[in-house]
UniProtKB/TrEMBL annotation:
Key word Magnesium present: no
Residue(s) carrying 4-aspartylphosphate: D51
Pfam families to which the protein is assigned, alphabetical: Response_reg (PF00072), Trans_reg_C (PF00486)
UniProt-listed InterPro entries: CheY-like_superfamily, OmpR/PhoB-type_DNA-bd, Sig_transdc_resp-reg_receiver, WalR-like, WH-like_DNA-bd_sf
Gene3D superfamilies: 3.40.50.2300, 6.10.250.690, Winged helix-like DNA-binding domain superfamily/Winged helix DNA-binding domain
Domain of life of the source: Bacteria
Domain OmpR/PhoB-type as annotated: residue spans: 124-222
Protein name (Swiss-Prot/TrEMBL): DNA-binding response regulator
Organism classification: Bacteria, Pseudomonadati, Pseudomonadota, Gammaproteobacteria, Pseudomonadales
Amino acid sequence: MKLLVVEDEALLRHHLQTRLTESGHVVEAVADAEEALYQAGEFNHDLAIVDLGLPGMSGLELIGRLRALDKTFPILILTARGNWQDKVEGLAAGADDYLVKPFQFEELEARLNALLRRSSGFTQATIVAGPLRLDLNRKQAVLDEQPLALTAYEYRILEYLMRHHQQVVAKERLMEQLYPNDEERDPNVIEVLVGRLRRKLEGDCGFKPIDTVRGLGYLFTERCR
């Protein structure tokens, strides 16, 4: 998933970007609200982590601005303010969850995963489509009860398509899930990865859930639950 991290403390910002990247996300980490607004306006994100104590425009103001711009992705507040009034204000501004510093990364990751699941319409950590089962926590795919050997990039594409099942997903959206920088993105790479993914899914059982919608992108045709 593509995440936006807004944290002015440089060491924590670096730590979050590193750990979340290691967890399989594409992370854009910025130090202030103005840069966050620019990133949110120019690029698609699946979730934002916002510190309340930002320089200049506060995290609460930023959240309000994002919602006013019709940005509907989940927002997790990350802050040192632990009293209930601050939590109420943050949630009222449009945030979806709240985590107080200091925190354990495992709790942060669990909250992020829960928010991402709910935003995709899933309540469980497993997505099922026909003979295919995707374990979102383990980042593992199982086809006909057999583990499917996918590369990290193949898994990311499959997860994104299944989260957005029965919707056309543009190549650009898939590229954003793999590469943080514009200059690294190559549509031909997506075609190669999707081709390899299709062959692995078809296997011996003939499962063909990914269609190409010419000129638009890809469609995971199976209903996921």
